[in-house]
Design a protein that fits this description.
181 residues, mainly beta
């Protein structure tokens, strides 16, 4: 039914990694998607989280400096932790975890809303909200907006951790829902 959120698919990481993808989740049947990414970070290093879109062959679009984003990162104890904005990047920033706030064994989650990824005549846009808990049990939260500044048919999404140490642990999940036209 038009306007209803419908589950499309999910993926679960079967091993520790720095990159996780979900393929063939964006189709012509939907205009907007809700993507939920849940993971536990126990890598012991700072892990910023980024996303990339997958092209019509499910290959990551990771060159050409086609991504733009802006984000504000808040600390639960009060105040802005980090503001960042960048143009001409190779990914979109969605979550920040500084060295002093390693979230060992703490769950983190990101919810993304992706607009028109399969429309070959439009740029792909997204908004994201992520949260996590640091070792001091303070909430860390980020709000981000971003765009893939090239029109094309994009069929999936990839999550990347910029830190080393396999920030995506076995059992991490990505779930995708769509809103019908």
């Amino acid at each position: 039914m038009a306007g209803n959120l419908e589950f499309i698919k999910s993926a679960t990481s079967s091993s520790n990694a720095d990159i996780m993808s979900i393929t063939d989740c964006f189709t012509a049947n939907y205009d907007m998607y809700k993507v939920v990414y849940v993971f536990e970070d126990d890598s012991g290093v700072a892990n910023n989280t980024f996303v990339r879109f997958l092209d019509s062959s499910n290959a990551a679009i990771n060159s050409g400096n086609l991504y733009n984003y802006a984000a504000r990162n808040l600390k639960g104890g009060g105040g802005v932790e980090l503001d960042n904005k960048n143009q001409a990047q190779n990914e979109i920033f969605i979550s920040y975890l500084p060295d002093k706030d390693l979230s060992l064994g703490k769950q983190r989650e990101a919810v993304l809303y992706v607009f028109s990824p399969y429309d070959s005549t439009s740029y792909t846009f997204m908004i994201a909200h992520s949260y996590g808990i640091n070792t001091s049990n303070e909430w860390l939260s980020a709000k981000a907006i971003g765009t893939l500044a090239t029109a094309g048919t994009h069929k999936g999404i990839q999550v990347i951790h910029s830190g080393s140490g396999n920030g995506i642990k076995s059992g991490a999940t990505i779930k995708v829902w769509g809103v019908k036209r």
